[in-house]
Amino acid sequence: MWAILVGLLLLGLYGLVVEPHWVSFREVHLTIPELGTDFDGFSILHLSDLHGRVGGFSRPRVREALRTSDLIALTGDLYAPSLDRRRLAGILNTWDRGKLYYVSGNHDYRHGRLDTTPWDPADALLDNRAVCLKRQDSELWIAGIPDLVKGVPKIDQVLNTLPSGARAILLSHRPDGWLLPGTEAFQLVLSGHTHGGQVRIPGYGAVFRHNRVPERYVSGIYQVPGHPVLITSRGLGMSELPVRFMARPEILRIILHTTNDHRIDEVGVD
What is the per-residue DSSP string for the chain? Predict the structure, then answer.
């Protein structure tokens, strides 16, 4: 009996003290057919659900990725009510605005309106718009929609911006953005929101999914023929429940490649 109680206590301490701060840095290599050769090796640092947490940004590997990645994709939920906003805002202001793109998450709204103060996203805000990145003769489009519940997503407005046959990436805070009609025009959707379930039970999976994507999906790579690849980050922070179990916080670095086939390789798990 005592052994069981001690075991439960240790598991509880692990979920409260250890795993929430044990950040995983992963690299995903994704091949997009017909991606312009000038974008071969293009790197995207995907960050999500910070909820005011800044500890991961002190790691040398993360600082190097922030500096060297070609694009930083920030998919919503910046703050937490219990943490001072100014600390995270100060860090966000040090990032290169020329390569930062952000879409809003549900926790970024107050009284029905987007409120990211004291940080001003300015041109980094990608809600309901698309931006064309050019390298020599190649183009890559980066588009975004706001939170599907707190915001007003206008996917048709975004799609009308894209030229026919464009190579395009969609940022959506919730994985359910992948389910919207018209997303077939994209090759990749990056999302967050789920925290990877935040608490997972061996043999069962996530206790709470927070999305409607099939197959009990809560994070990682999801691929179905005829649809874009969906990659959902477990995010860095936590919301109401200050615990993680078998759902480590993570930072993703996605590297794009161009060949005639469509392969996904995941490396660099730590």
Answer: -HHHHHHHHHHHHIIIIIGGG--EEEEEEEE-TT--GGGTT-EEEEE---TT--GGGGSHHHHHHHHH-SEEEE-S----TTS-HHHHHHHHTTS-GGGEEE---GGGEETTEE--TT---GGGB-BTEEEEEEETTEEEEEEEE--TTTS---HHHHHHHSPTT--EEEEESSGGGGGSTTGGG-SEEEE-SSGGGSBEETTTEES---S--TTT--SEEE--TTS-EEEE---S--SSS---BS---EEEEEEEE-SSS--EEEE---
